[in-house]
Amino acid sequence: MAKTKVEFVCRECGASHYQWGGQCLYCREWNTLEEVVLSQYSSSKSSALKDLPPSQVQNLSEVETQAKSRYSTGLSELDRTLGGGLVDGSVVLIGGDPGIGKSTLILQALAFANQSHTTLYVSGEESSEQISGRAVRLGIKEDILFVSETYLEKILKITQDVQPKIIVIDSIQTMVTDQSNSAPGSVAQVRDCAAQLTQYAKQTSTILLMIGHVTKGGAIAGPRILEHMVDAVLYFEGDSGGRYRVIRAVKNRFGAVNEISVFAMSKKGLQQISNPSAIFLSNQNNPSPGSMVMVTREATRPLLIEIQALVDQSNGPAKRVSVGLDQNRLSLQLAILHKHGGVATFDQDVFVNVVGGIRVNETASDLVVMLAIASSLRDKVIPSKWIAFGEVGLTGEVRPVYNASERLSEAQKQGFSVAIIPKANAPKKSPNGLKIVAVEYLYQAIKYLLESK
What we know:
Structural class: alpha/beta
Number of strands: 23
Mean pLDDT: 87
Number of helices: 10
Strand order of the largest sheet: 8-7-9-10-6-11-12-13-14
CATH topology of the largest domain: Rossmann fold
Helix content: 10-25%
Shape: globular
Distance between the termini: 85 Å
Number of domains: 3
């Protein structure tokens, strides 16, 4: 007798549960668990293995590897994030908040690719009039093939007749297939549709770009397996009402992970920002206490960002607020600053912000955050041409960070004059025009800041 194996998957975060419950145990959302049939099998099916062809086993060293050709999207910043361009048979998943510019970016990339290859835009959300109107606003005159369809079997039939080189699915949550009886957008529908599209792309060496919805937590909606199926996952970051957009690769089988590209939204679509460090720095002509610049690393790119701190007398329980930085690490930094730097903030409200909306995850920001807090508390202005980076340990030592030479080179290119860095990262020869202040302990950096003229 056939057996059925099921599980319950949260449509918000994709977590799996063995039994149904009113609340997801991972994201704590209510009424989000859906039943998904994993497999249906019987003992009689084991005899079918006799009819399968034998699998070929070979040495890994004997497998011939070929360099895959890259296809440019016409946007050098996007090509950088993809690892050099699009690859034959690759599947790219793009997620982001509504209205942030996903469809605009894809339409610009298709317009360039359509000059030499056949492209197909499949929309399950917008009509042909809406897509055509957007193309007119962007100044796109290329004859891109378009179809408004959500039925997956029809889409696969169209692609077999047209044989496009690049296919865009906008969005994967609107697709419906006969292999699942669930509602459109459910976990089972998204999983089955993505699996069939990915299989088609791999078999025909077609480039597949899928746009995905995101949950209110920022993750791509649907099962977590969706991100495991594809070759690259790109996330749009930034405020949809703001001007700047950051595209980050959180997964990439053909390039570096965490690589970013920066764009500015305009009437003509997304414009590339060739020097992203400039947009993350505020007005440096009139520096004020509590502001300092650091050099962070985003995959292969050094990036200059400004960290601002505001320390004010507390009228109640002291507040600790950080935007763009880890909240728990801020509490850790304040404890180290008090113990080993002699700067007490137990009766002060401390607010720390990363300018430009970018998020910093590396520990190299420790030294900059502490110097900015000390600057705001002591009302000491940090010169605009100073930078710093370094990890600070619990014992107050300033620990080295990776890729220090590239960070110093980027600071030297941008015209900075003083760099406060860990002693272990100090180069044998300072870059031209850049003074290196090598510190071994936190109190040395704070002393240099407070005693400087």
